[in-house]
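Weekly puzzle thread! Below is a chain. First person to post its structure in token form gets bragging rights.
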Amino acid sequence: SENSLESLVSIGNICRSPIAEAVFRKLVTDEKLEHKWRTDSAAVSDWNVGRFPDSRALGCLRHHGIETAHKARQITKEDFQTFDHILCMDESNLRDLNRQSNQVKDCKAKIELLGTYDPQKQLIIEDPYYGNEKDFETVYEQCLRCCKAFLEKYH
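Winning reply:
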């Protein structure tokens, strides 16, 4: 569609999805495609609503020259109706999103794992919350590969 929309979702919206959102937004900006994409991220749960991303996620992004002002929010019924793509990080996200989308009568979003776009076939992007800086770096690399491939497919 002329105005492609994308949403990036993960469970708490403070680690993986803000990284994916920021990475995708930078790719889109670098390609001068901002006018074609609306990018956001949201949580399946309401645990962290209003919180800034994990400081390690912010540090990882900053290390790669990327800033984000994202604050965690919970996914809404409207998200399912307005976004073309809802990309998530793992199977539990996928189950929750599919269950929620079944309650929305005119869901137009295609819901899938972001990892399905990974050229290295790493399907699941593991939550780095209980890990260390290296785990956040792994998430960043996965998100970068997947977002690049996703953008190439839909650009």
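Puzzle host: Confirmed. Bonus trivia for everyone else. The radius of gyration is 14 Å.
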